[in-house]
Amino acid sequence: MKGWTGYILRVNLTDKTWKKESFTEEFAQKWVGGRGFAAKILFDELKPGIDPLGPENKLVVALGPISGIPAPNTGKAVVAAKSPLTGFYGDGNLGTHVASQLRKAGYDALIVEGAAAKPTLLYIEDEKVEFQSAEEVWGKGTFVTNEWIYARHPKSTGVLNIGQAGENKVLYSVIRSMEGRAAGRPGIGAVMGSKLLKAIVVKGTKTIPQERAEEMKTIGIEGLKKARELDQKSGWSKQSTDAVLAWCNEVNGLPVQNMRKTTHPEAFKVDGERLNDARIATYGCPNCTMHCGITIEDKEGHESELDYENIGMLGPNVNVFDLKQVGSLNYLCDDYGLDTISAGSVLGFYADAIERGATTGDFKFGDAEKGKALLGQIARREGKVGNLLADGTLRMGKAWGKDSVNYAMQVKGLEMAAYNCKSIPGQALAFGVAPIGGHHREAWIITFELKHSTRESYGPEKAAKVIELQRIRGGLFELLVACRFPWVEVGYELENYPRFFNAVTGLNWTLEDFWKTADRAYAMIKLHYLREFPNATRKDDYPPAVWFDKANADTEGAQKGVVLDYGKYDSMLQHYYDQRGYDQRGIPTKELLAKLGIQKEAAEVEKYAKLS
Amino acid sequence: MKVTVKLIGPLIYEGGFSEKALTLPGPMTAGELSAYVKIDKKRPTIITRNGRAVANGDKIKDGDRVVISHIYSGG
Q: Does A447 sit within 8 Å of B9, measured CB to CB?
């Protein structure tokens, strides 16, 4: 079996044991890697109802056949576990040297079980696995932890670590790697923290097995050159992802004031142009061709790495329009290991709920200094407020009552990314049906809606576009594992990815083969959901009620008076289910599951819930 | 005819400005306006007029705010 190492490393922190386990070629081809491996492994090994923050939960780090191979943007790894935020499968991907180092160590995935008795650094070097003390950095932020690790290991070493937020089990804490890289929005950092696992350090000395290594080297280097050329030609990296902020502000899609508003006259102060002007350095992931991490000096003089999502949510969403202050909020999130999207949503929701009398407090929109203090309280779970805000917007809304949950900007418990979709139905659907909750990674169709459909449409073409993009973004790229940016932002051709896959594996797959595998991974995540929530309904695929509320419509501008329509949204959701082969609840039918070859998994789910 | 044109992202560096009020020499379509402000015709763009997407052939009117952007894909 070429293309995969054929091995998974299983580590148990409770009894400090480890073993190298092989997997079959059938498993490899069925699940490919990354999200596919993680979803399958966690489905097989976790019992429904377990405590996500207990030792029974497992952390999976999964790679794909092109992870770490020199080719466009392949320095990515998937991290996954049962999410403490959403209560079912959660994952994320991040740029890290772990992508190449774990594969060079001889593994396509790492499974971490149990829980350590003391703060631990898991050290992996080929067949050597050590459980080292991390007590010296327990209680420290991710930047200090990173420095501490890299003072002892070369810069090419793969590192995953958590900050105080993960240690204190904040439900939207992330795993970090290098400066500015983070993943695991649904609290995968808290899962590491619950295991007293401060860091994972990986070094490998072997060669990643490839069927046609020379061909891969040639097309990989060609690809790196081509993707760089495309970026330079388009000028995308000038402002990176933050260029979209000014556009969202123009088309009434910016998250302002807990997504109450869609545009703001001061938005230009935090837009891509200002970010580029303030740039002091640029960072990217391993094998990156279009570095998206632009750093600025924040209010306190730290170097803070920004992109659109964290600016949108920690800036306009909390009415902060001072780029240096946004940088400070972002720096703190990165250091504590908090997800910036959820943190911005939590702060916005808190200010909104105070304004509306759902709770009390002295935090107001626009108060960056108080926001910084709150982030510290959240990361430390300090006091009643810090402790509640550490649990995310859904739990905050449930605790406060007074219908505040209606403007908790989340889907399935996961806070939505920085796009205000009360007048953008297709993207609202994309958030609604994102398999792990309100994530933008799976599908983003706003320009399609405006340019190739009509904004007001709730038609089947939007459901089809969401599915098309889910197969590519949440499927192909999360399985292989690679960053989607070269394709999605500068037009590097999608057909290159099966070429890479075929060169390393010796197989002859087309994109169609990947779509089926992607559908299988999505169905698998839906089975996770149903097994945990046997009473799941289509309402679980709805965005927050406030997006349907006429009282929340824009009062001026092109989208004045427009909000989502319940009946039409439901009809568009049905288009999505019909095209996917899902039932009325949004669950794959038995017929579809059989077609995807996961009848065994379906039978397991039927012990807990009904399938149609 | 007076309009305001805003360029987004890399188009700022191509067109040489971020936002400005222009007096046009005569009637123009959205596509003609894009070429008038020196945006490469081969570059895929999305143009909005007063917050709503328009086709290249749609006419621009006096007082319009026209935004020309690189086509973003949500990161």
A: no
Cα–chain center distance at A465: 20
Q: Which residue has the tokens 């449930």?
A: A398
The reply to whether residue B48 touches residue A236, judged by beta carbons under 8 angstroms, is no
Supply the pTM of this predicted model.
0.98
Closest among A500, A485, A465 to A580, alpha carbons compared: A465
Please tell me the distance from the alpha carbon of residue A287 to that of residue A65, in angstroms, as a whole number: 15
Residues of chain A contacting B50 with CB distance shorter than 8 Å: 558
CA distances from residue A249 to A275, A281, B2 in whole angstroms, order as listed: 16, 26, 22
Q: Residue B14: which of A235, A455, A489 has the nearest Cβ?
A: A235
The answer to whether residue A180 scores a pLDDT higher than 70 is no
pLDDT tens per residue, range A41-85: 999 999 999 999 999 999 999 999 999 999 999 999 999 999 999
Rounded to a whole number of angstroms, the distance from the CA of A270 to the nearest CA of chain B is 13
Which residues 9-68 in chain B show a CB within 8 A of chain A? 9-10, 12-14, 18, 43, 46, 48, 50-53, 67
Strand, helix or coil for residue A119: coil
| pLDDT(A178) > 90 | no
Please list every residue in chain B whose beta carbon sits closer than 8 Å to the beta carbon of residue A455: 52-53
- For residue A558, what is the nearest residue in chain B, using CA coordinates? B51
For residues A404 and A430, the answer to whether their CB atoms sit within 8 Å is no
H-helix segments, A176-322: 188-194, 213-234, 243-250, 272-278, 308-314
Give the chain B residue nearest A419 (alpha carbons).
B74
Average pLDDT in the A285-292 region?
95
Shortest CA distance to A184 belongs to which of A332, A38, A386? A38
Question: How far is residue A275's CA from residue A517's CA, in Å, rounded to a whole number?
Answer: 39
B73: nearest CB among A273, A489, A557: A489
**Beta bridge mates, B20:** B5
Chain B neighbors of A251, CB-CB under 8 A: 48, 51, 53, 67
Query: Could you confirm whether domain B2-70 is CATH 3.10.20.30?
Result: yes
* Best mutation target, A240, A447, A456, to test chain B (most B CBs within 10 A): A447
At A297 the three-state DSSP class reads strand
Between CA A419 and CA A430 the distance in angstroms is: 11
Q: Cα–Cα distance between A440 and A452 in angstroms, integer?
A: 20
Query: What residues have CB less than 8 Å from A45, skipping those under 6 apart?
Result: A58, A111
- Is A235 in Cβ contact with B72 (below 8 Å)? no
pLDDT for the residue numbered A179: 63
d(CA A242, CA A245): 5
> Residue B74's pLDDT is what?
87
Q: What percent of chain A has pLDDT over 90?
A: 99
* Cα distances (Å, whole numbers) of residue A273 to A268, A276, A431, A556: 8, 5, 28, 26
Phi, psi torsion values for A275, nearest 5 degrees = -65, -45
- A419: tokens are 């796009």
Indicate the CATH number for domain A7-203: 3.60.9.10
Contact criterion met (CB < 8 Å) for A489 and B8: no
What residues does each domain of chain A span? 7-203, 235-419
Q: What is the dihedral of CA A543, A549, A550, A555, to 10 degrees?
A: -70
User: Starting from the edge strand earliest in sequence, which strands make up the sheet with B52-54, in order?
Assistant: B19-23, B2-8, B65-70, B45-49, B52-54
Chain A residues near residue B20 by CB distance under 8 angstroms: none
**CATH number attached to the domain at A235-419:** 1.10.569.10
* Amino acid (one-letter) located at B57: G
Task: Compute the distance between CA of residue A233 and CA of residue A216 in angstroms, rounded to an integer.
Answer: 25
